[in-house]
Amino acid sequence: MGLSKVWVFAESDGDKVKTISLEMLAKARELGDTVECVYAGGGAAVAETLGKHGATKVYATGDLDG
């Protein structure tokens, strides 16, 4: 019995998605039908990479400075 949706908190070093986030996406794909990510920052730089690793949607907070 799989879950309908699994969320992953994605992290990066600058514009490069951290390996742990990609590993979490891989596991999430095993567990759920749909995988979505939450990302603290501007998501444009990482959305393509997250999508290539199974995220169907990326929710980004935007710039959190200040």
Describe this structure in words.
By secondary structure, the chain is α/β, with parallel strands linked by helices. It has one domain (3-60). It has helices at residues 19-31, 44-52, and strands at 3-10, 12-13, 16-17, 32-39, 57-60. The strands form two sheets. Strands 1-4-5 form a three-stranded parallel sheet, covered by helices on one side. Strands 2-3 form a two-stranded antiparallel ribbon. Helix 2 links the parallel strand 4 and strand 5. It is globular.
Features:
66 residues; single chain; three-stranded parallel beta sheet; alpha/beta
Outline the fold blueprint:
Blueprint lengths: L2 E8 L1 E2 L2 E2 L1 H13 E8 L4 H9 L4 E4 L6
Parallel strand pairs: 1-4, 4-5
Antiparallel strand pairs: 2-3
Integer average pLDDT:
93
Helix content: 25-40%
Name the beta content range: 35-45%
Secondary structure class reads: alpha/beta
- The strand line-up of the biggest sheet is 1-4-5
Rounded to an integer, what's the Rg over CA atoms? 12 Å
Largest sheet: 3 strands, parallel
Number of domains: 1
Number of helices: 2
Q: State the distance separating the first and last CA atoms.
A: 43 Å
H/E series: EEEHEHE
Number of strands: 5
Judging from the principal axes of the Cα atoms, what is the shape? globular
Detail the poorly predicted runs. none
